[in-house]
Amino acid sequence: MNLSEHRYALTVQWTGNRGDGTSSYRSYSRDHDVLIPGLPPLKGSADPTFHGDRERYNPEQLLLAALAQCHMLSYLHVAVKHGVVVTDYRDEATGMMRLNRDGSGQFERVVLNPRVTVADSGQADLAASLHHEANQVCFIARSVNFPVEHRPVTVAA
């Protein structure tokens, strides 16, 4: 087993055929399920701007969620390495995607706004500085081609 390689697999199943398939742009739903063995189905759709269902997750939200989750998990790991005890973590993340005239689009940036509570007020500065290291080891942030900014707030419990 090669410990340096990790493989992931899932199934995306379109559930939006209303009977006529993709006979026209408005004839089908963008609904789909993301299926991962052993986990509940993740109900997905397009962004409502693109005729999606606002009660389902869209890929843009999930990309933002993946970045925020990865940064949090990387940050908690780095905090342990540096002896910083984190007692709470919350991130109000935002992302900006731009559409192009040809119908394509891409994310231009993501801003993570983690609010971290640490047990020791004397470690607040150290804790704040660890976001840079966490970004360096976050698998998802290292995989995207747009800036992931951090505006952390650190408070003591």
UniProtKB/TrEMBL annotation:
InterPro entries: KH_dom-like_a/b (IPR015946), OsmC/Ohr_fam (IPR003718), OsmC/Ohrsf (IPR036102), OsmC_Ohr_Peroxiredoxin (IPR052707). It comes from the Bacteria. Pfam families: OsmC. This is Peroxiredoxin. It comes from Pseudarthrobacter phenanthrenivorans (Arthrobacter phenanthrenivorans).
